Amino acid sequence: MRAFLRVGGLGGARLLCVLLCAIALVAGCSRGPGVDALRDELRQGLDAQFEDGLFSIRQFVRRGSAPAGSEGLFVYYDAELEFMRDYALTAWRGLNLGTLAFVLGATESGIEGFKAKGNAKGETLIVRGRLLLEKDDTTDEWVRVVRGRAAEASVREPAVQDLRGSGPDALLQSVRDQVATAPAARVDARNTHDAVIVRELRGALTRIDLAVASLDGKATFGSGPRPGTYFTFGTMLSRFAAKTDTPVFAYESAGSVENGRRLQDRSLDFGLLQSDIAEMLYVGSAEERIFPNRDLRSVASLWPEAIHLVTLEGTGIDTVADLRGRRIAVGARGSGTRVNAVTIGLAAGFEAEEMPRIEELGLIAGIEALERGEVEALFVSEAIPSPALQVLAARRSDLHFLSLDPSFVEDQSEKELVYYPHTVAARTYPGQEEPFQTLAFACTLMTHRDVPDERIEGLLGLLVDRVDELAALYFRAAFVSEETMRLGIAVPLHPAAQRFYEARTVATE
């Protein structure tokens, strides 16, 4: 072997590395339980963590395995699941594909065969997933891990890269890499020199990106913070649209409020907004010091969302009233989550000295602050299930989802067209044994009145006519349907969107 390395040099070393990896992979394939045991683990998981008796496993093929830390083992598999009764994995209520994917250890794009209007009994799903296994200390048998730190999925970006190349594009990419991987500021360190520099660099990158996208003739599209649903949808749509006559640039924003403001100043053509935030921006809000934006226009409702209020066991927080004087994370300034949290706090009737201490933190920073004990509760307004909260619930057994006061939910639902009561079903999140009551609304696609008709028509055409292709890339697109695209909208439609819907209605009559 030493002679081989001496003769082959670097190429020989690389070949040796490949051979050793192949040997390790082959050896790993034989580790863990057999196919029948793995199949039983998957069946039990589907019954216990999703819906009892919904699926039958018609085929199960083990594809390989790999180490997972010092004690664990990832086993990769392909499976065919048969529906034992009719079920809609993209319904606006109940357990959906997001929860199923987490149970299967698959990405949403790793599940094929689901239909936007629901699957019938006897139809099948094709799944490419993985199971995480560990040895049981008492029985010495392999068991599946669905909770605990080993089950956590990474939401971090790649490591920071060094400055490289020359010229404006190379410099811009290097700055982007550095900013994207900058650690979230702690609650007590958000006004440091480093935090200010990162914040200002992000603002500069935003202005450059939007200006260049507009120069290139792309429709600018405000999404949301990573790793949330808005960000994922915007990224998918941008990549898909690049292959069409409707190119789109997805901008990673702070969320609904920022998107609305950028629509107002015309730096965005489209933006994803919570339906309640869209209405607030349109009519104005004295509490938020927002003047009415009468140029805002609706395009479509896309999927349902809800307010999540979470805490950790042992904090003594069981209701909204228990937030008196506590430290809570409410989402970054510019997010819809922050507005929802403030609205709920005002409705609780806290006296000035009882108001919670509000920390304006983004999704990931808020989760980190909750786990460090810097805040005691966290508001998240997002689609169900929230990917970030799925990861948190899998990592911690002490996560607690709080119900909102029924009278508050009923009052808001009766007062505002954009709200409706919603029960988040048990098992939506790992370890969530009980349902919780909350306030729901829609994610809406918004624009402003000066966006050309052809851009509105082009984007609506993608969402309606190519929904199956979009859903194959990100399952949330499957929630978009002509039956739901005008639900919960309180802001006038863009004229091009109005004509689009009227033409579709006439065509189906």
Please describe what this structure looks like:
The protein has 509 residues and is α+β, with helices and mostly antiparallel strands. The chain has 3 domains: 112 residues, Nuclear Transport Factor 2, Chain: A (Roll), CATH 3.10.450; 181 residues, D-Maltodextrin-Binding Protein, domain 2, CATH 3.40.190.10; 138 residues, D-Maltodextrin-Binding Protein, domain 2 (3-Layer(aba) Sandwich), CATH 3.40.190.10. The chain is 38% helix and 21% strand.
Would you summarize the structure shown here?
The chain is 38% helix and 21% strand.
Keywords:
509 residues, alpha+beta, Nuclear Transport Factor 2, Chain: A, D-Maltodextrin-Binding Protein, domain 2, 3 domains, 10-stranded mixed β-sheet, 5-stranded antiparallel β-sheet, 15 helices, 15 strands, globular, disordered N terminus
What Rg do the Cα atoms give?
24 Å
What's the CATH topology name of the largest domain? Answer: D-Maltodextrin-Binding Protein, domain 2
Strand tally is 15
> Which bin fits the share of residues in helices?
25-40%
Summarize model confidence as the mean pLDDT. 84
Overall 3D form? globular
The sequence of SSEs as H and E is HHEEHEEEHHEHEHEHEEHEHEHEHEEHHH
Strand content: 15-25%
| Low-confidence parts | 1-10, 23-29, 153-165
Whole-Å distance between the termini?
A: 76 Å
Tell me the number of structural domains. Answer: 3
Structural class given helices, strands, pairing?
A: alpha+beta
Main pleated-sheet profile? 10 strands, mixed
Which architecture of the largest domain would the CATH scheme give at its second level?
A: 3-Layer(aba) Sandwich
Helical stretch count?
A: 15
